[in-house]
Amino acid sequence: MIFILSFFSSFSQSRSSKRTFEFFDISDGNGILDSLITGGPIFLVGFLIAYSVWWSKTDKEKRDLTNSQNNWGCFGVILIFIGLFFLLPLIALLEFLFVSIWSIIWGIIIIGAIIIGINSLINKK
Questions:
Q1: 67 to each of 78, 105, 123, how far by Cα in Å?
Q2: N or C: which end of the chain has fewer CB within 10 A?
Q3: Which of 22, 23, 33, 43 has its CA nearest to residue 90?
């Protein structure tokens, strides 16, 4: 049991490529704030444009859209991707936090399994 848990733990930690937060490096507070100031409004405007033109419509209303309306919807989606590009430092920080918390949770699970295994061996009757 312990061997299986340690195998899965070591397998999940071994990666051949860098994670996003290792590739982009973790920005300091000013870098995160700059990315929020730059990318946040761009993402929000793109989402509002795409939502108002495409995503809030029913299928029948989508078929009746003109080319200029479709172009505005496409422009909104492009703005969303541009905003996400500027938000990469924030996304890298969130991934770093998620991976850290996830590793702590798995460590607690593995330690708990070891303790339960030892306890069951000691109290075997």
A1: 16, 50, 74
A2: C
A3: 33
Ordered by start, the domain boundaries in the chain are 29-99
Tokens matching residue 55: 């995503």
- Single pTM value for the model: 0.61
Query: pLDDT tens, 55-107?
Result: 777 766 666 777 777 778 888 999 999 999 998 888 888 888 888 899 999 99
Instruction: List Cα–Cα distances, 91 to 24, 69, 81, in angstroms.
Output: 10, 31, 13
The tokens of 107 are what? 């460590």
CA-atom Rg of the chain in angstroms:
24
Kindly list the distances between the CA atom of residue 10 and the CA atoms of 38, 43, 47, 97, in Å, as whole numbers in the listed order: 39, 38, 40, 20
